[in-house]
Amino acid sequence: MDIAQILINTLVRAAELSLLAIGLTMVFDILKFANFAHTDYAVLGALFAYVFNRILGLNLFLAIILAAFVTGWVGILIDQAIFKRLRKIGAKPVTLMITSMGTAIALRNLMRLIWTSHTKTYAIPLQKPLEILGARITPLQIGIIVVGLLSMIAFHLLLHRTTFGKALRAISDNSDLANACAIDSEKMIKRMWFLASAYGVIGGSMIAMEHLLYPRLGFDIIIPVFCATILGGIGNPYGAMLGALTLAFAENLILALDLAPLINLGGLFNVGSIQISTGYKPAISFMILIIVLLFKPTGILRKK
Amino acid sequence: MPIINFIIYLLTMIGIYSLLAMSLNFQVGFTGLINFGQVAFFCIGAYTSSLLVVNAGVPVVVAFLVAMALSGIFGYIMSIPTKSLKSDYWAIATLASGEIVRLVALNEAWLTAGPFGVMGIPQILKDLIPKDAYPVFYLLFVIACIIMVYIFLSMLTNSPFGRNLKAIRDEEELCLSLGKDTQKLKLQAMIVAGTVGGLAGSLFAFYIQFISPENFKPIETFLMWAMIIVGGRGNFKGAIIGAVVIQLFNVSTRFLGNYVPLGSDSMAALRMTIIGVLIILFLLFRPEGLIKEKKKVYD
Known about the structure:
The structure holds two protein chains of two kinds.
Chain A: H1 3-31, H2 38-55, H3 60-88, H4 93-115, E1 130-132, E2 135-137, H5 139-161, H6 163-173, H7 175-180, H8 185-210, H9 217-232, H10 237-256, H11 260-264, H12 281-295
Antiparallel strand pairs in A: 1-2
Chain B: H1 2-31, H2 39-56, H3 60-79, H4 87-107, H5 109-112, H6 134-158, H7 160-170, H8 172-177, H9 182-208, H10 218-231, H11 236-256, H12 264-285
Helix pairs in contact in B: 1-6, 1-7, 1-9, 1-10, 1-11, 2-3, 2-4, 2-9, 3-9, 6-7, 7-9, 10-11, 10-12, 11-12
């Protein structure tokens, strides 16, 4: 595989991962716990989009927007029903994290109960890939990259040009001071959940479009998403984007790499080309995660 | 008498999971280490002991000991990347470790027979025990193991070592400031927990006599979590009671599945949904679990 193809695959993967990583990092930044149900919210939204698209016959783009909106509210509802109560009784962040794991299990299996374990696809016509610099890219993948880029710009503007963004940054910096300045943090937390869940749905739907959609998908993508978040520096949204890009590049590079020269040691052995076996594909992000934890647990962009 | 056999099966499985819950409780309830990859110990224990006996013809006792040692070593290795990090990192790194172990079991077919699993694991002391009495014998064997582990872990948690672990759980900085090497203590706690998990895995493999990567899915970890959340953390009675409650629910609903017009996949999904909700409800309304930890007060 040549370098142009690696770069294109990297951009597609990074667009998907960064949308998911942003929500995770935001919740961590404001509420100080790692939300293990985050990717399951995304898959719930992707399944809503499937219903709107396949059963109600809506345009896929509209279906995803609508699903993101609905799931944003689901995010708020779950927070009100579960996490807000825990915040009120002053539970430790660890308890919130374990509860989010319970939520993830309940949500994932509820989805399995409603939509069954079978894989699903959206109504996307078969696409002829275009050739750019000898690399192949489908119009869908171009769309994914563009939507990813636009979402990142929108997020940046939201964080810096709106009152909500400023309030959010204030809470992240110093929540007591923010409260003293009459910032209604509960209201901001609601909006934050909406945003985190909705962004997650866009990312989750894009992954589902590129591959397959099934209720367990949330568990299968949780480690790359956490890895991107930690790699960038947990709690930092720009770090999440950078982390997603770095992880996506590392994943695609390792997949494309020929490991034979490493083993042959300059002609000592004569082994043909060796590549990572497909069975270990999910393990690549695990290994990167562990390497990151060993050498740079604070991530590339340390928080402020 | 199928009903008696079923009850003995249920009790044996409760026993094996009690060991796993006790091991998890030792990490979470006593040391405050969030392990979302507990199933890795179970998997390593089961595969090591059964492969040693089936492929290498090693005596069962030796196989059990090696399996326990390997799981303990894995507990050590698993916690190296996160030994200095906070619980969020522990959670995700252990989740990843658990999945890596399962992927190795699934992909390294030359060693583990891959998705087909290890077959023909012999019964322990088969020639000495009459066939009808065998299930009861194995149940008693499991109970004996539980009693030994219970005594061992209780002694350990009441020792100065155990008090250090509780100090890490409650106030890690304070513990550090008293000159305790908290990282080393965490690694030691993981070795102990891994050893117990490995024993449970070996007991499981020689009971079921057939293991495959299907037995060691991440969902098993969350069953163990449900056990310690429902039963209560910080004491081993809670872990055992939790194992009883969750396994009763888990196995009996599998049994009820024959009478409910739902497919087996939907039934499994419904079962796990209820377990997820149970975890949430307990954490919200009874965070200490059914059996509360008795905290000693030092005057």
